[in-house]
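debug: dumping io for the single-chain case to check the tokenizer round-trip. Nothing else runs in this session.
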Amino acid sequence: MTESLEIPGALKNTFHRLLRRIPIELRNDQQLLRIILAYLKMGGEKLARQGINVAIERYRDDVKIMKKRLREEALIKAALAENEDTSDDKDNDDDDENDDDENDDDDDDNDYDNDNDNDNDNSKYF
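debug: decoded output
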């Protein structure tokens, strides 16, 4: 982790103290460690802490973006799977499963109403 970095003796304690502020996932990032060491050498501990805070915010933003992409991909996969399920209808009609007529595009309720239209009986209004 810090073996490849040449940390001056006077900054070792401060650098290792700053390492505890860095999330575990970023502690092995050699580029970030070099940047933090450079900030520590040039501007002291305050500048190094600011650099760490920026790195943490960028990391959190990256994690949010990755999670959002994963959710979007899962939604797309679910939509595609649902679309495949609906495309299995051989007749491409909108009839119900319990419908007597397989080729009509309406449901059973409309079939019932059409059968009763032939009657001249007004009893359905009372």
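debug: round-trip ok. The first helix runs from residue 12 to 19.
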